[in-house]
Amino acid sequence: MAERVAITGVGQTKYDTKRADVSIAGLCREAAVRALEDASVTWNDIDAVVIGKAPDMFEGVVMPELYLADAMGATGKPMMRVHTAGSVGGSTALVAAGLVKAGIHKRVLTMAFEKQSESDAMWALAMRIPFQPALVAGAGGYFAPHIRAYIRRSNAPDHIGILVAVKDRQNALKNPYAHLHLEDISYEKVAESMMIWDPLRYLESCPSSDGACAMVVAAEDSVSGDRAPAWFAGTAMRSEATQFAGRDQVNPQAGKDCAKEVYRQAGISDPRREIDAAEIYVPFSWYEPMWMENLFFAPEGEGWKMTDSGATAIDGDMPINPSGGVLSSNPIGASGMIRYAEAAMQIRGQAGEHQIDGVRTAMGHAYGGGAQFYSMCILTKDKP
Amino acid sequence: MPERGEGTIVERPLRLDYDYTAGLAQSRFLKGIAQKKILGERCPKCGKVYVGSRGSCPTDGVATDGGEVDLPHKGTLTTFCVVNVPFAGQSVECPYASGYILLDGADIPLMGLIQEIPHDQVRMGLRVEAVWEDEVGPTLQSIKYWKPTGEPDADYETYKMHL
Amino acid sequence: MVLRATGKAGSPFAAVLGRRPVRTISASGAAAYLGEAMRDVAIVATAQSPALRKEERRNEVEILMPVIHELRENAKLDQDDIGFTVSGSCDYLQGQPFAFVTALDAIGPWPPIDESHVEMDGAWALYEAWVRLQHGDIDTALVYSFGKSSPGDIRRILTLQLDPYYLVPMWPDPVALAALQARALLESDGVSEKDMAEVVARSRKHAKDNPNAQLKGDVDVDQLLNEPMYLSPLRKHDCPPITDGAAAVILAAGDKAREITDRPAWIRGIDHRIEPHSLGVRDLTDSPSTRKAGEVAGVGSGKVDVAELYAPFSHQEIILRRALGLGDGVNVNPSGGALAANAVMVAGLLRVIEAAQRIMDGSADRAVAHATSGPALQQNLVAVLEGE
Fold it and tell me: Are residues C132 and C176 in the same domain?
């Protein structure tokens, strides 16, 4: 009961618009094998498998974990499938960590994926429900009005979103797994890109990617591998309803509650000072300043100042998404787990060109649905 | 649709038909729409007026059966976006503005299309009213779109808690 | 009048080629007792909707809401008293992505709650809640599950559970796969069509006492055998009905459980296992994953009074009984089981509920609950419940 849990291995696939070179199983296995290798364990060392992905309609396979059992080495073992909308990659990792924390298993393989090219995510998201006109154009169309409300509320200057889009794409150039490698990314390029969902431009939006991410989570006495693990110092999930009277859609309560809980567990009182790097779920540029406030990195109304001053840049005092983030790679179901994996890589010093020096405390964050589902973790270099 | 690789793609078109049940609350709402009425329902616990509810007050988890409210057909555009790209199943030509309309007396906004105003002049706080189709039925498509009423814009303070 | 319309969801699609030891299976495959004791967790309240062939008036939220209200009433708890909430459901049943999202409205998640969802039968949501309670920081959890099998073509939908490259293009639906399994069983040893019909007759008879069952009554085995074949060797009555429904459970740990009810149904062991997906590499006449889960859950370590087995097809009950080593003295499926009502995604959780009810009402001291998922019993969960 309440065992310490560590991430001992991470594995990612190359993210791309279409990974036509592999099947769904092949894609998932690519990430899983890399995670096992990183942890220096084999399939036989794994006690259970926890799989996550966003809606099944993104691939057209109902409960695909059943078909993936063989490829994930799960046969004869317990296997679970989590689906909590966009936050699922994070929630999946937490369900896996929860099995170890409870003392039920020693080592759990967790994997999240999306192979959006096999169906049509825009179609799945804009599915026509009878009696209602189809007005919301995908996720961007859903979030754009809330971004407008944030801009109005905070009086943020228009260029903030562009700064985030440029920063994350520049970071992605340092990450070999990132989907978008836009060598010629620039402020002008983003500013001139098409305004798809006004106030959101094309280059301020995430791509649609194929990809998978996997991690090995282990109990204290089962830590393995050549590299020191990243320890879970705090884990939390929070949900609220999608729409309710008086819901704050710009700075949702569930996000604030989730952050408070994860900081409480990790003993963090000043997140901006105490957290060295964070991988935050930012699928649309403006969500960076919005989450800076929701996560208490900045006072309400001042999140955009962090972006504006360069504080969130890779060399800033609060680096956000050194990997390039969701804006550079977005296999939806995996995107949350990638945040956790990248946070773990920063702790473990394995982030290569996008490594930030001296990371001892890092945050992984995922949100989903209409920003009503949250999953967060604090990872540390020192055993909590 | 993925590009065809050399012998690596199999196409598997699939079709599934569903009978969609609107439910009790939504049926009441849509039957109102068929009579050119926009009916809200009060939560018996918190007293908030829900419009187009799925059947429950999402904060109290109880049926919104605390009384019907015949809402006026005008309200305030709280926030919106302008859609410039077509997408599958889209019913309007681009560019168009769609947004959240908080009817006077309601506590939750309805989604709607904003017309009869250039899309680059649409703004938060705009006062709008429903324009109905000639033929109405039990579908939200009976409201053709929402147009400006000509009233002065609503003060931000009056709707900021609905953002 | 209730409004209905037919929605089309079709898309071009392409695919690229207490403090008692609980046993766990270590990676080496050997069963081993965990050094540390697990926390005692019990089912303390349950609720379920009636099983309906087609619920045309109420949507998922409206089916679920009264179930949740009844549940909380039974436990005398509010949502504020619940430490963790988790649900199980399947988007494709409803034909909408994120179907579970609106269902949350039935709970009233305000202030925000610690919540999760599995795209699995509710029995696995219950497993997640049991795990969450082991962490020790909370004492209660609410588990719910909903599923309308009627809006779409459930056989086509469940076919999409199969390998998308090799199996789905042939559209072998779950009834066809179950028929393959039944044939393998009939050809293997000693099992006859009469044995299958006896399962059906007993199920219908038991269901007479279950106000929530759909198919019930006294049927004669010979009469059943005179019915025409449906998908040989399955007759219609060997297959489950189509059902819409919802169910929910509250779990509580230790003294909190005793506070809520006089006779909690303690979860003494719970485990689940999955088998290969490819039918060609499985022995369809056996359910090794059920056997293994049963061993880990501790089925064999005491007398079993009642077993609720999720066997959507009659012959599967025979396979499951063998795998769990349940003898003639065990009262199997007193609720009527899945042959009496089969709300997909709910039916597994219902087995746990029905088993727990027998403990809670004092009619049984030790019960086994089983849930399954996937084609031809691919994945199985077993729980052992006891009174104090």
Answer: no
Annotated domain spans of chain A: 5-120+208-222
Round to whole Å and give the CA distance between C388 and C386: 6
Place of tokens 């995510």: A121
Its domain, for residue C322, covers 172-238+265-386
pLDDT at C31: 36
- Summarised one tens digit per residue, pLDDT across range B4-36 is 445 567 777 778 888 888 899 999 999 999 999
CA distance A257 to A270: 15
Of C16, C22, C97, nearest to A55 by CB-CB distance is C97
> In angstroms, what separates the C-alpha of A111 from chain C's closest C-alpha?
14
| ipTM, interface predicted TM-score of the complex | 0.97
CA triple A310-A311-A312, angle to 5 deg: 90
Q: Taking CA B48 as the corner, what is the angle to CA B46 and CA B50, rounded to the nearest 5 degrees?
A: 130
**pLDDT per residue as tens digits for the range A155-196:** 999 999 999 999 999 999 999 999 999 999 999 999 999 999
Closest in B78, B84, B113 to A194, CB measured: B84
Residues of B with Cβ-Cβ distance to C59 under 8 angstroms: 21-24, 26, 54-55
Q: What is the pLDDT of residue C4?
A: 39
* CATH entry 3.30.930.10 includes domain A5-120+208-222: no
Q: Which chains touch C (3 or more CB pairs under 8 A)?
A: A, B
C379's enclosing H/E stretch is: strand C379-386
Nearest Cα of chain A lies from the Cα of C192 at a distance, in angstroms, of: 29
Q: Is there a single domain that holds both residue C334 and residue C234?
A: yes
Candidate from C14, C151, C157 with C-beta closest to B21: C151
Number of domains in chain C: 2
Q: Is the pLDDT of residue A127 over 90?
A: no
Which residues of B touch chain C, with CB atoms under 8 Å apart? 1-2, 5, 7-27, 30-31, 54-63, 138
Flag whether pLDDT at A360 surpasses 90. Answer: yes
Q: Strands B110-114, A361-368: parallel, antiparallel or unpaired by DSSP?
A: unpaired
Query: Is C304 inside any structural domain?
Result: yes
Instruction: Give the model's confidence band at A116: pLDDT under 50 very low, under 70 low, under 90 confident, else very high.
Output: confident
